[in-house]
Amino acid sequence: MPWEADTKPLWAETARERSHGAGAFPTVRMRRNRRAPWLRRLVAENRLSVDDLIWSIFVVDGENLREPVPSMPGVDRLSVDRLADEVGRAVDLGVPAVAVFPYVDPAVKTPDCREAVNPGNVICRAVRTLHEAFPGLGVVCDVALDPFNSDGHDGLVKDGIVLNDETLEVLCIQAVVQAEAGCDVLAPSDMMDGRVGAIRAALDEAGFKDRLILSYAAKYASAFYGPFRDAIGSSVALKGDKKTYQMDPANSDEALREVALDIAEGADMVMVKPGLPYLDVVRRLKDAFGVPTFVYNVSGEYAMLKAAAAQGWLDYDKVMMEALLAFKRAGADGILTYAAIEAATLMKKG
Ligand code: PBG
Predict the structure, then answer these.
(1) Would you call 333 helix, strand, or coil by DSSP?
(2) Burial label, 50 (beta-carbon count in 10 A; 0-12, 13-18, 19+)
(3) Rounded Cα gap, residues 175 and 117, in angstroms
(4) 16 C-alpha to center of ligand 1: Å?
């Protein structure tokens, strides 16, 4: 009947949505479901667990080093000999994987980024150590040239231009070298075109058909990476910005294209980065593709909460857990975060 159709709210397209629209106060009281903790637990739609966490850590050449990163309170760069102790805490807490990033001495950085493909570099040594000490732990490595580049960019630079295809050749060797060291998940974060396909082919050819690619598919040119660039020492080297390869924060349709391409090229998992200001992108990607979708709770997001908490303006534990849960609500399957140990410890306490 035509008049019946008119009684439905315009947005009521599915049976589920129609039921949301039915009824009104005082018959309906939304607060009933929030009355007590047991009830809130029963009706919770999303849950954070330790299984959702990848712990991001920094490694540095040298011995017995633990160097605090000033713009990331609570985060240290660790020398490889101190890695097993620290990562052991994560393993004991049940964190499934770690992502390792290198600090490289400025004297070792070159325009051809040769340290990136050195099988004895600090990343490869860290991966070997972790692989041996914790065979059941997933190890994720960034594939990008910025920590090793005297130009500070993720790709090779010539006459001020970040070269795409020439960079791919180096990235492929870097990925294979990391796989040889025992890296399980290669995570290209460089945003060069065609890199997922090129890296997949290089890994397959080198006999690493079982290694995964976690593509930083929707990676934005963001000022939220500032503290990370301090941590890996690339802020001093970086000339200009990364806007010719990382995405414009104004765009989200473009993220769908990036992800579609990366999946076609063989990405096993995709990532959105940064996290909190880009939750809409996480939701769109998860809805559109349904592939394992990760989100990077980046250094600036971590620093903001720590800084506000240090002023006494925010309750760190509460805002941090709320932010991590928000990633789950947006549709993320997992979260790369510097707060993984803190979150896992809090969850264990219950
Ligand atoms: C670089 C890389 C960056 C991050 C991860 N890999 C920084 C950048 O693109 O400049 C950022 C992580 C963070 O801010 O926590 N390949």
Answers:
(1) coil
(2) middle
(3) 8
(4) 41
CATH of the domain at 165: 3.20.20.70
- List, for residues 27-57, the tens digit of each pLDDT value: 999 999 999 999 999 999 999 999 999 999 9
Separation of CA 197 and ligand 1 centre (Å): 21
Determine, yes or no, domain membership for 296.
yes
89 domain-assigned: yes
Residue 131 structural domain? 48-349
CA-nearest of 281, 282, 289, 242 to 261 is 289
pTM score, two decimals? 0.94
**Do the domain assignments include residue 2?**
no
In a domain, 27, yes or no: no
Residues within 6 Å of ligand 1 by CB:
142, 144, 146, 154, 189, 225, 228-229, 242, 298-299
Distance CA 261, CA 164 (A): 16
Protein residue whose Cα sits closest to atom 11 of ligand 1: 225
Find the catalytic residue in 109, 209, 243, 273.
273
Say how many domains are in the chain: 1
State the average pLDDT over residues 257-275.
98
pLDDT digits (tens, 9 = 90+) for 232-261: 888 878 888 999 999 999 999 999 999 999
